[in-house]
Amino acid sequence: MTVHPSLQTSIDAWTHSVEAISELVNPLVEGEWNWATECPGWSVRDVVSHVIGLECEMLGDPRPIHSLPRDLFHVTSEHARYMEVQVDVRRCHTAPEMTSELEYTIIRRSRQLRNEKRQPDAMVRWPGGGEVSLEEALQRRAFDVWVHEQDLRRALGQPGNLDSAGASIARDRLLAALPKVVVDDAGAAPGSAVVFDVNGPLEFMRTVRVDAEGRGTIDGSVSLGPTVTLTTDWETYLRLACGRVRAEAVADKLKIEGDQQLAEAILAHFAVTA
User: Where is the Mycothiol-dependent maleylpyruvate isomerase metal-binding domain (predicted)?
Assistant: First the structure.
């Protein structure tokens, strides 16, 4: 095996999710490609275009030369503009064009990953600028593709894979952002403890603790008398953390115990993906 063992988990998760996306969209008729997803301004076609576009960039393909229309009101930042180019350039593509490009991109990218000989700490170019380690890049792609698989599943009414390898990577990356959400964004006071109790296909309980100096840490131990306990299901947690839905829209799926004001501040800043 040429692939470093520490990279294989992300590669396997990416492969599972991107092949699931291919299976989801292959049978779609033309109109279904235009169905809306929870990604603001993006249809099923747009989500698949985004996946194709970023994998092409990871392959080193040149970016399309394309001017965006002025009426894309969901594009509100330079990062969003960068991402939108790969999406908008494919908005005129037919269903067969989309599925064939997706399949070809998966074949090319899978071959590249099978032949990956670099070490996990090798620096690689990241779409949009800058460099990250190869290990971080592969984790990011596994995370992104799994999240978009779930976007497509919700849009198409075909739930599944909420407990896959990609789900585990997504859970760990989203949990790593919680101390910042609780301390820096929501302003939890020193001595606070906030418990997140998540059920469903992927069950976990984590506590964010704020020490006397105001630093936040996260662990899996139980907290006695926490300041706040937030209970929800894994899919709702995912949708909130990825900015797909606001807390007030899923209030029936959230149980809040303890400091209501802190809980509301946490939920107001819960989205951690760009």
Answer: 15-153
